Amino acid sequence: MPEEEGVRGGAQGSGAPSDPDAELLARLRRGDEDAFRALVTEHGPFLMRLVMMHVPSHSIAEEVVGDTWLAVLNGLDRFEGRSSLRTWIASIALNKARTRGTREGRIVPFALLRRRYEEGGGPALDPDRFQGRRGERPGWWASPPAAWEGPERQLEAAETRDVLLHAIRDLPPRQREVIALRDISGWDAEEVCNTLDLSETNQRVLLHRARSKVRAALEEYMRPETEGTTQ
Amino acid sequence: MNRRQNRMFTCQEMVELVTDYLEGRLDAAARGRFEAHVAECDACTLYIEQMRMTITALGHIPPESISPEAERELVAAFRNWRDQTA
């Protein structure tokens, strides 16, 4: 009974096939409240995380997510299942979050100003970390990374989480969205490209910049002698 | 051991290639050069390991929750929508 056109998911079988989407959609269109609750339970937390990247407070994020669900319900008839349900929902949420984020004056304007020029570009690491042309081995490490002490335990700590989230908030918006979807939500590259309307290469460049900067923030945090040197 | 044929990547290049490597986007030749560098360079080995740890740490960030109040409002909105479209 479910229409087959909605089935197009990743051929690699990573994640669930989109069949459940079709079933859930049919139930939603019939007005099944349990289906709606299931949808909200499954996608609500990641939508909140995504929207929080753009707006300054939890309560505003809840508003935006609420608006998103309304838009989803009102758009159900128009949704053709050419993208996955969560891709579609995420695009709606991101549009609303970007608009709202702009209206609210953004979260960290100083960081945005500072970094606007490097939306996609800029090196992964400060060039001073490497030997210059006159060095013994040009392009090789001048100040190599130090090992992180007891990282397993520390990486799970709440404080580390704050460092990560803070680093992500400092990123230019596109990088922020890519790393949130790829690494926090665990989406694959193709889905992220579809949601954010990026080419595969562009997605990878943004991901690279974002990951490099988040790693650098962790490095800063893990280094024992940086105590008390926050800006 | 014919490393000479392909110039070795510098560490600075390695740091820019790490995502392409982790994403499986380097061609065979570049992957070979990447891995040859890793085999020789402890600092880059550590750097890549730290990139992996960063990704793992990001994956462990717990989801944001919605307040019960907001959830109640959502369900109310849903009923409203259902009644309007019925």
List the helices and strands and how they pair.
The complex is a heterodimer of chains A (231) and B (86).
Chain A: H1 19-29, H2 33-52, H3 58-75, H4 85-103, H5 109-115, H6 151-156, H7 158-169, H8 173-184, H9 189-196, H10 200-222
Chain B: H1 11-22, H2 28-40, H3 42-59, H4 68-85
Helix pairs in contact in B: 1-3
Describe the structure.
The complex is a heterodimer of chains A (231) and B (86). Chain A contains ten helices and no strands. By secondary structure, chain A is mainly alpha-helical. In chain A, helix 3 crosses helix 4 and helix 8 crosses helix 10. The longest helix of chain A is centred in the last third of the chain and has 23 residues, at 200-222. Chain A is elongated, with a radius of gyration of 21 Å. The N and C termini of chain A lie far apart (60 Å). Mean pLDDT of chain A is 82; it is low at 1-17, 107-118 and 226-231. With 86 residues, chain B is mainly α. Chain B has a domain at 3-61: Arc Repressor Mutant, subunit A. Chain B is 71% helix and 0% strand. Chain B contains four helices and no strands. The radius of gyration of chain B is 24 Å and the shape is elongated. The chains are: A mainly alpha (231), B mainly alpha (86). The interface between A and B is large, with 55 and 45 residues.
Q: Which class do the helix and strand fractions of chain B yield?
A: mainly alpha
Structural class estimated from helices and strands of chain A = mainly alpha
Radius of gyration of chain B (Å): 24 Å
Number of strands of chain B: 0
* Greatest interface (CB-CB under 8 A), with counts per chain: A-B, 55 and 45 residues
**What is the CATH T-level topology of the domain at 3-61 in chain B?**
Arc Repressor Mutant, subunit A
What's the N-to-C terminus distance of chain B? 73 Å
Task: Report the mean per-residue pLDDT of chain B as an integer.
Answer: 90
| Multimeric status of the protein | heterodimer
Total count of domains of chain A: 2
